[in-house]
Amino acid sequence: MPNVAASRDCQIISGWSATFNQDEPDKVKCVPLHKGLKLYAPAKINLTLEILYRRADGYHQLQTVMQELAYSDLLYLEECPAGRLELICDDPFLPSSEENLALRAASLIQQHYAPHRGAHLALYKKIPVAAGLGGGSSDAATVLKGLNDLWQLNLAPASLQELAARLGSDVPFFLCGGTALAQGRGEIIHPLPPFPRAFVLLVSPPGTELSTPLVYRSLKWDKIKSGEKTANFVQLLRDGTGKSSGDPDLLARLLELMVNDLEAGAFALVRELSPLKKMLQEMGLKPLLSGSGPTFFAISNDHEKLRAAGDELTSRGYRVILTSTK
Ligand code: C5P
What we know:
Elements lengths: L2 E2 L11 E5 L7 E5 L3 E19 L5 E21 L3 E6 L11 H13 L4 E7 L10 H16 L6 H11 L5 H4 L2 E6 L3 E4 L7 E6 L7 H8 L8 H13 L9 H7 L2 E2 L2 H7 L3 H10 L5 E2 L6 E5 L2 H13 L3 E6 L2
Parallel strand pairs: 1-6, 4-11, 6-7
Antiparallel strand pairs: 2-3, 4-5, 5-7, 5-8, 8-9, 10-13, 10-14, 12-13
The chain binds cytidine-5'-monophosphate (C5P).
């Protein structure tokens, strides 16, 4: 087993300098002193998410279009001697032990491909946790890619994909990012032409987290679907790209096809979600839950409209992030 020494106290991790941000005293800024890597671990939204059927292994067969966002966690990786793996994280509510998916990713790649190598990981969280934005999965994929580089392992993409799929259904998407169709339980990735560049407003009730297994369970899914909306979405995306001037209606037509079969499960667990969706619609937005929630996203070319809606929602106490597709 790897030697996992975990601490939230930056000061006791040798080789790192840590300073506290004066504006946000709970946030620790960690800067590697030696040669290391600074990496961005982006958030995602699900532009479509359709459940085809419930599988015998308890998972749900999916068809989902995933989209990388320009909003990221920050991760520093640095070589550490004697096969040690250490994680520091500025979020005191995240486990720094092996429960943390980033550290599990480091441990997995070390066990399989580099038993004598070690690393310091410093994770600066910006993506809300358990919010349907894939933050933990993205951190894990970024650790796999980063350690592959840092330790000069030259692993084939298929080997990284295999490790990623073992860590979680959403993790393989973050190895490639961009816009992609995910199938199976979410781990089979087909890159797609990029979704049009647009602004994205993320909104969730404050302090609300949702457990993905609970949302799937609350659905009690017994239907069989073909995933037609996702197929149409993918077709439209493929047809719409390559036209040099771009189709001005493409974004609007894609937004019409967005769907998330997990909404009903999340709405049954969190009462505030249904009224929040209605409120966003009354503001002229087209909200959809991302993944298992509880974050809604709304996409538009109109930055001012999203900014004004975001200001209003912030004043009403909602957690709001304004970003864009990547
Ligand atoms: O793969 P991951 O560990 O992220 O999945 C967490 C849980 O979410 C699974 O144990 C399962 O309960 C549920 N899940 C599912 N179908 C999927 C993905 C996840 O039922 N396609």
